Amino acid sequence: MLISSAYAQAAGGTSGTDLMAFLPMVAIFVVFYFLLIRPQQKRAKETKTMLQALQKGDEVVSAGGIVGKISKLNDSYATVEVAPGVEMTIQRTAISLLLPKGTIKSL
User: Fold this and answer.
1) CA distances (Å), 39 to each of 21, 33, 45, 52, 94, in order?
2) What DSSP element (H or E) covers 56?
3) How many angstroms from the chain centroid is the CA of residue 1?
4) Does 41 share its domain with 83?
5) What is the pLDDT of residue 3?
6) Residue 59 lies in a domain
7) Is residue 41 one of the residues assigned to a domain?
8) Could you give the number of structural domains in the chain?
9) What is the mean pLDDT of each run of 10 residues along the chain (107 residues)?
10) pLDDT of residue 16
């Protein structure tokens, strides 16, 4: 006989192995949450707080690397003085970093 008979397995007893099959996926999600998702949410919250707290006279760096002092603020835009008498209007969301006072003079 080349072909052996196949017998049905008894019912029950497989619920524990089903749970164990999903355990690696749950572990991967937990790792992704703590290593990727949570730090990104924290960084976005800090950036939002920084953009809302901007004031006239603050020294900032734009996303393009332009350093200047805020001379006017709007809800969506900020006018940044990059040199004496030279002003640029940029979006508020393009401001990437708030510098300590006096940083521009030391450059």
Assistant:
1) 28, 9, 10, 20, 21
2) none
3) 65
4) no
5) 77
6) yes
7) yes
8) 2
9) 70 66 92 95 96 96 96 95 96 96 90
10) 62
Q: Residue 11 has what pLDDT?
A: 61
State the virtual CA torsion across 17, 22, 23, 25 in degrees, nearest 10. 160
pLDDT value of position 14: 56
d(CA 74, CA 54): 10
The residue segments making up the domain with residue 92 are 55-106
66 and 46, same structural domain? no
In a domain, 8, yes or no: no
Instruction: Clarify whether residues 49 and 68 are in a common domain.
Output: no
Cα gap 87→78, rounded to integer Å: 10
Q: Is 66 helix (H, G, I), strand (E, B) or coil?
A: coil
What's the confidence (pLDDT) of residue 60?
A: 97
